[in-house]
Write a structure and sequence with these properties.
Layout lengths: L15 E8 L2 E5 L2 E2 L2 H14 L4 E7 L5 E7 L1 H17 L2 H19 L6 H13 L5 E8 L2 E8 L7 H4 L11 H9 L1 H15 L14
Antiparallel strand pairs: 1-2, 1-6, 2-3, 4-5, 6-7
Length: 215
Protein backbone atom coordinates (compact mmCIF):
# COMPACT_ATOMS: atom_id res chain seq x y z
CA UNK A 1 0.00 0.00 0.00
CA UNK A 2 2.72 2.47 0.97
CA UNK A 3 5.18 3.61 -1.68
CA UNK A 4 6.92 6.62 -0.13
CA UNK A 5 7.81 5.33 3.33
CA UNK A 6 9.06 2.27 5.14
CA UNK A 7 7.50 0.89 8.29
CA UNK A 8 8.92 2.60 11.41
CA UNK A 9 10.01 -0.83 12.62
CA UNK A 10 12.15 -1.23 9.50
CA UNK A 11 13.61 2.28 9.63
CA UNK A 12 17.34 2.73 10.38
CA UNK A 13 18.52 2.45 13.98
CA UNK A 14 20.42 5.71 13.60
CA UNK A 15 18.56 9.03 13.24
CA UNK A 16 18.80 11.40 10.31
CA UNK A 17 19.21 15.12 10.96
CA UNK A 18 17.92 17.73 8.56
CA UNK A 19 17.63 21.52 8.62
CA UNK A 20 14.68 23.19 6.92
CA UNK A 21 15.15 26.82 5.87
CA UNK A 22 12.14 29.18 5.73
CA UNK A 23 11.57 32.67 4.35
CA UNK A 24 8.31 34.40 5.22
CA UNK A 25 6.72 31.06 6.05
CA UNK A 26 7.79 29.37 2.81
CA UNK A 27 10.29 26.48 2.85
CA UNK A 28 13.15 27.53 0.57
CA UNK A 29 15.98 25.11 1.32
CA UNK A 30 17.39 22.08 3.07
CA UNK A 31 20.59 22.09 5.09
CA UNK A 32 21.44 25.57 3.85
CA UNK A 33 21.05 24.65 0.17
CA UNK A 34 18.42 26.74 -1.59
CA UNK A 35 15.88 24.61 -3.43
CA UNK A 36 12.70 25.11 -5.42
CA UNK A 37 9.48 23.73 -3.97
CA UNK A 38 9.21 20.53 -6.01
CA UNK A 39 12.77 19.23 -5.57
CA UNK A 40 12.64 20.23 -1.89
CA UNK A 41 9.54 18.11 -1.34
CA UNK A 42 11.01 15.25 -3.36
CA UNK A 43 14.19 15.25 -1.28
CA UNK A 44 12.26 15.44 1.98
CA UNK A 45 10.05 12.58 0.85
CA UNK A 46 13.17 10.44 0.48
CA UNK A 47 14.75 11.46 3.80
CA UNK A 48 11.57 11.27 5.88
CA UNK A 49 10.14 8.24 4.12
CA UNK A 50 13.34 6.29 4.74
CA UNK A 51 12.84 6.95 8.46
CA UNK A 52 9.25 5.73 8.55
CA UNK A 53 7.68 9.18 8.72
CA UNK A 54 4.46 10.38 7.13
CA UNK A 55 1.88 7.63 7.48
CA UNK A 56 -1.61 8.50 8.68
CA UNK A 57 -4.57 6.20 9.28
CA UNK A 58 -7.62 8.23 10.30
CA UNK A 59 -11.42 8.20 10.41
CA UNK A 60 -12.70 11.47 8.95
CA UNK A 61 -16.00 13.21 8.27
CA UNK A 62 -16.98 13.70 4.64
CA UNK A 63 -18.76 16.81 3.40
CA UNK A 64 -22.09 15.00 3.45
CA UNK A 65 -21.57 13.95 7.07
CA UNK A 66 -20.66 10.30 6.60
CA UNK A 67 -17.51 8.94 8.19
CA UNK A 68 -14.84 7.27 6.14
CA UNK A 69 -11.45 5.76 6.78
CA UNK A 70 -8.52 7.40 5.09
CA UNK A 71 -4.96 6.10 4.83
CA UNK A 72 -2.49 8.73 3.69
CA UNK A 73 1.23 8.95 3.07
CA UNK A 74 2.99 12.31 3.23
CA UNK A 75 6.58 12.19 4.51
CA UNK A 76 7.61 15.65 3.32
CA UNK A 77 4.32 17.22 4.36
CA UNK A 78 4.64 15.83 7.88
CA UNK A 79 8.15 17.23 8.29
CA UNK A 80 7.31 20.64 6.81
CA UNK A 81 4.19 21.00 8.95
CA UNK A 82 6.13 20.19 12.10
CA UNK A 83 9.07 22.45 11.19
CA UNK A 84 6.81 25.37 10.30
CA UNK A 85 4.99 25.19 13.62
CA UNK A 86 8.29 25.02 15.48
CA UNK A 87 9.45 28.23 13.80
CA UNK A 88 6.13 29.97 14.41
CA UNK A 89 6.40 29.18 18.11
CA UNK A 90 9.65 31.12 18.13
CA UNK A 91 8.67 34.25 16.20
CA UNK A 92 4.92 34.79 16.70
CA UNK A 93 3.61 36.48 19.82
CA UNK A 94 1.16 34.64 22.04
CA UNK A 95 -2.06 36.28 20.81
CA UNK A 96 -1.18 35.95 17.13
CA UNK A 97 -0.23 32.31 17.55
CA UNK A 98 -3.41 31.62 19.51
CA UNK A 99 -5.57 33.20 16.82
CA UNK A 100 -3.73 31.33 14.09
CA UNK A 101 -4.29 27.99 15.81
CA UNK A 102 -8.02 28.70 16.03
CA UNK A 103 -8.26 29.55 12.32
CA UNK A 104 -6.31 26.51 11.11
CA UNK A 105 -9.22 24.01 11.25
CA UNK A 106 -11.55 26.55 9.65
CA UNK A 107 -9.19 27.10 6.73
CA UNK A 108 -8.74 23.36 6.30
CA UNK A 109 -12.51 22.89 6.34
CA UNK A 110 -13.00 25.46 3.59
CA UNK A 111 -10.41 23.83 1.35
CA UNK A 112 -11.70 20.32 2.06
CA UNK A 113 -15.24 21.39 1.21
CA UNK A 114 -14.22 22.97 -2.09
CA UNK A 115 -14.73 26.56 -0.97
CA UNK A 116 -11.45 27.89 -2.35
CA UNK A 117 -12.94 30.64 -4.50
CA UNK A 118 -14.76 32.40 -1.67
CA UNK A 119 -14.34 35.75 0.12
CA UNK A 120 -13.81 34.06 3.47
CA UNK A 121 -10.85 32.06 2.15
CA UNK A 122 -9.35 35.25 0.69
CA UNK A 123 -9.84 37.01 4.03
CA UNK A 124 -8.06 34.22 5.86
CA UNK A 125 -5.23 34.41 3.34
CA UNK A 126 -4.79 38.07 4.26
CA UNK A 127 -4.32 37.00 7.88
CA UNK A 128 -1.79 34.39 6.84
CA UNK A 129 0.15 36.90 4.74
CA UNK A 130 0.57 39.24 7.70
CA UNK A 131 1.45 36.56 10.25
CA UNK A 132 4.04 34.90 8.00
CA UNK A 133 6.12 38.02 7.30
CA UNK A 134 8.58 37.22 10.08
CA UNK A 135 8.44 33.42 9.91
CA UNK A 136 11.99 33.27 8.64
CA UNK A 137 14.73 31.05 9.99
CA UNK A 138 15.98 27.49 10.27
CA UNK A 139 14.59 24.47 12.10
CA UNK A 140 16.82 21.48 12.82
CA UNK A 141 15.00 18.16 13.06
CA UNK A 142 15.79 14.64 14.12
CA UNK A 143 14.06 11.98 12.02
CA UNK A 144 13.92 8.64 13.77
CA UNK A 145 11.66 5.62 13.37
CA UNK A 146 8.45 7.45 12.49
CA UNK A 147 9.13 10.44 14.75
CA UNK A 148 9.93 14.04 13.93
CA UNK A 149 11.79 15.57 16.88
CA UNK A 150 12.86 19.18 17.24
CA UNK A 151 16.64 19.52 17.59
CA UNK A 152 16.89 23.30 17.39
CA UNK A 153 15.40 26.43 15.89
CA UNK A 154 16.77 29.88 15.10
CA UNK A 155 15.53 33.08 13.52
CA UNK A 156 16.65 36.71 13.25
CA UNK A 157 13.13 37.57 14.46
CA UNK A 158 13.12 35.30 17.49
CA UNK A 159 11.04 36.58 20.40
CA UNK A 160 12.80 34.30 22.85
CA UNK A 161 15.28 36.06 25.11
CA UNK A 162 16.94 33.99 27.80
CA UNK A 163 17.64 37.05 29.93
CA UNK A 164 13.92 37.90 29.85
CA UNK A 165 12.66 34.37 30.42
CA UNK A 166 14.82 33.17 33.30
CA UNK A 167 14.09 33.78 36.98
CA UNK A 168 17.51 34.80 38.23
CA UNK A 169 18.28 37.92 40.23
CA UNK A 170 19.59 39.62 37.10
CA UNK A 171 16.29 39.68 35.27
CA UNK A 172 15.24 42.77 33.36
CA UNK A 173 12.13 43.10 35.50
CA UNK A 174 11.52 43.42 39.21
CA UNK A 175 10.26 40.10 40.54
CA UNK A 176 8.28 41.92 43.23
CA UNK A 177 5.98 43.08 40.43
CA UNK A 178 4.78 39.50 40.06
CA UNK A 179 2.78 39.67 43.31
CA UNK A 180 0.56 42.48 42.07
CA UNK A 181 0.08 40.78 38.72
CA UNK A 182 -0.90 37.50 40.37
CA UNK A 183 -3.43 39.28 42.61
CA UNK A 184 -5.07 41.08 39.69
CA UNK A 185 -4.92 38.11 37.33
CA UNK A 186 -6.58 35.85 39.88
CA UNK A 187 -9.17 38.39 41.04
CA UNK A 188 -12.02 37.17 38.77
CA UNK A 189 -11.57 33.63 40.08
CA UNK A 190 -11.53 34.90 43.67
CA UNK A 191 -14.74 36.84 43.13
CA UNK A 192 -16.36 33.84 41.47
CA UNK A 193 -15.43 31.61 44.40
CA UNK A 194 -16.81 34.08 46.96
CA UNK A 195 -20.09 34.41 45.08
CA UNK A 196 -20.32 30.63 44.75
CA UNK A 197 -20.00 30.30 48.52
CA UNK A 198 -22.95 32.65 48.98
CA UNK A 199 -24.99 30.66 46.48
CA UNK A 200 -24.15 27.39 48.21
CA UNK A 201 -25.56 28.74 51.48
CA UNK A 202 -29.01 29.04 49.94
CA UNK A 203 -31.41 26.27 49.13
CA UNK A 204 -30.24 24.02 46.33
CA UNK A 205 -33.07 25.14 44.01
CA UNK A 206 -33.48 28.68 45.26
CA UNK A 207 -32.18 31.47 43.11
CA UNK A 208 -29.95 34.04 44.82
CA UNK A 209 -31.60 37.26 45.88
CA UNK A 210 -30.83 39.45 42.92
CA UNK A 211 -31.54 43.15 42.75
CA UNK A 212 -32.31 44.78 39.45
CA UNK A 213 -31.43 48.32 38.56
CA UNK A 214 -34.29 50.07 36.79
CA UNK A 215 -33.88 52.71 34.13
Amino acid sequence: MFVLSVSPEKAPDRPTYVEVNFESGIPVGLNGKRMAAVPLVQELNKLAGANGIGRADIVENRLVGMKSRGVYETPAGTVLYFAHRELESLVLDRETLYQKEMLVPRYAQLVYNGAWYTPVREALDAFVTVTQKLVTGTVRLKLYKGNVISAGRKSPYSLYREDFATFSEEDVYDQKDAKGFINLFGLPLTVRALVQQEWDKQASHELPGLKYKRD
